[in-house]
Amino acid sequence: MDLTDEVMDRPLDALVGAEDSVIIDLPEWHQVTTLSFASGGLNGVARCRIDPAGLGERIETTIAGYAGLRWRWTVGANDTPGLAARLRARGLSERSVIGLWRATDLSVPDGAEAAEATSADDVAAFSAVMAEGWSAPLAPLLAYNTRLALTPDRST
């Protein structure tokens, strides 16, 4: 697996959907749809490596399927050639994404503070801050963060 795959594909392995998420995870296609996250998050395509002959139809079907939801289509270097241009031509706006990495020892840098959510009250407080910061409804974020807190470690 090359670095591009590590940045673009490996995070998909750790994705925990919300209770109502529909996740399609195939080598050639990764898509998440979560109706409870209508204002953004947990909605989008993150891998599109399909036959170019079917690209136009797939773009139209995908856009129609996200009607009423805030979502994104992330285009990687290994995706179907010409995908980004086709999405721009269809009117989708383009934003650059930069892959980041960090040490896995979870040490806290000097000058930073870290807090671990260890109770339901902590998860609720974290979710409230998140909802306010993203101008998003609290209920789906609280349900999702509670689900994450109860999910066993998925690290490899």
Blueprint (SSEs and pairs):
Blueprint: H1 3-8, H2 10-13, E1 22-26, E2 29-33, E3 44-48, H3 55-65, E4 72-73, H4 83-89, H5 120-134, H6 138-150
Parallel strand pairs: 3-4
Antiparallel strand pairs: 1-2, 2-3
Helix pairs in contact: 5-6
Describe the structure.
The protein has helices at residues 3-8, 10-13, 55-65, 83-89, 120-134, 138-150; strands spanning 22-26, 29-33, 44-48, 72-73. It is α+β, with helices and mostly antiparallel strands and 156 residues long. It has 2 domains: 3-89, no CATH class; 120-150. Helix 5 (120-134) crosses helix 6 (138-150). The model has no long low-confidence stretch (mean pLDDT 86).
- Biggest pleated sheet: 4 strands, mixed
Q: How many domains, in number, for the residues?
A: 2
Distance between the termini: 15 Å
How many alpha or pi helices? 6
Radius of gyration: 17 Å
Beta strand %: 5-15%
**C-alpha geometry:** globular
Which structural class matches the secondary elements? alpha+beta
Average pLDDT works out at 86
Helix-strand string: HHEEEHEHHH
Q: Spans with pLDDT under 50 lasting ≥5 residues?
A: none
Strand order of the largest sheet: 1-2-3-4
Query: Strand tally, please?
Result: 4
* Percent helix: 25-40%
Which key terms come to mind for this protein?
6 helices, alpha+beta, 4 strands, globular, 156 residues, 2 domains, four-stranded mixed sheet
Summarize the structure.
By secondary structure, the protein is an alpha+beta fold. The longest helix is centred in the C-terminal third of the chain and has 15 residues. The protein is globular and about 50 Å long.
